[in-house]
Amino acid sequence: MKNANPQKSIVGIGSALVDVLVQLKDDQLLEQFGLPKGSMTLVDAALSKQILEASAGLESGMETGGSSANTVRGIAQLGGKTGFIGKVHDDKMGQFFKKTFEDLQIKPHLFHGSIPSGVAATLISPDSERTFGTYLGAASELSVENLSDELFAPYNYLHIEGYLVFNHELIEGILKIAKRNGLTISLDMASFNVVEANLEFLKRLVHEYVDIVFANEEEAKAYTRKEPEEALKEIATQCSIAIVKIGKEGSLVQAGDEFVRVDAFPVNAVDTTGAGDVYASGFLYGLANGLSLENCGKLGGILAAEVIQVLGAKIPDESWPQIMIALEKMKA
Q1: Rounded CA gap, 34 and 123, in Å?
Q2: What CATH code would you report for 10-14+65-112+137-331?
Q3: Which of 44, 104, 282, 301 falls 20 to 30 Å from 313 in CA-CA distance?
Q4: Predicted TM-score of the model (pTM)
């Protein structure tokens, strides 16, 4: 039975990672480990350990990471009802992830993997460029066998990250269970190279299962070979709501015949990591709480504007009071 509360609930699924944010003094470490500056490179456990050990003396911090997990965290901070499905190990990183989510009132549906929890060594150069050495660890062990109708049934929406598209059996299995239980399915396309590598499979998934598609302009172009507005129109014929984010130009939203252009908020961008994830937080929270499409896009834009002014994918605590004031005005 669906939640009787008028506020609809949202569950995210994806890679449960912990971001270790390291402030580099120069780019020597990147060269040492062969990490192309600005890239996301998948690394094994041994290399992950070496990177973290080599950077141990530098200024660093930890926060929960993973695209879908970032989105769920933002929804929870807006006051939304959320859960998260993923896999961690019973180690320091896994315990940190679980406790952080519990403290935010996010229901953690976390399975235990046989290998260490996933860690993204996030190496921040002096010019603010970020380079990721990502060890998926236990997150990579999530499988359809872990999942059940009972896990999905209490929720109204499922938000899934495009990175899972590389595991065809897993993502289609997830979407089948969610659809069977009547959830509205939201997909973030994640990265243009994810789209390019899985194009035909991804198109079939969108046609058969997905209701809401988030893409930035590079992902939308990889998916349709078209510029943002034309790409939006094409994606909107395949799902109920299409969103194309166009950086400092804002975002475009289409649902059926309804088209909305949402302007971005002019801010000093320090680091764009997590901007797309928290845009989805605002949009989905708005949708689950009955806001107009325009206000869903505006709320997404407000969150994205806040996160790009800081290092990392987490909106600072001091930004939330102003965000909540803006949200109350939208609800009025």
Answers
A1: 13
A2: 3.40.1190.20
A3: 44
A4: 0.92
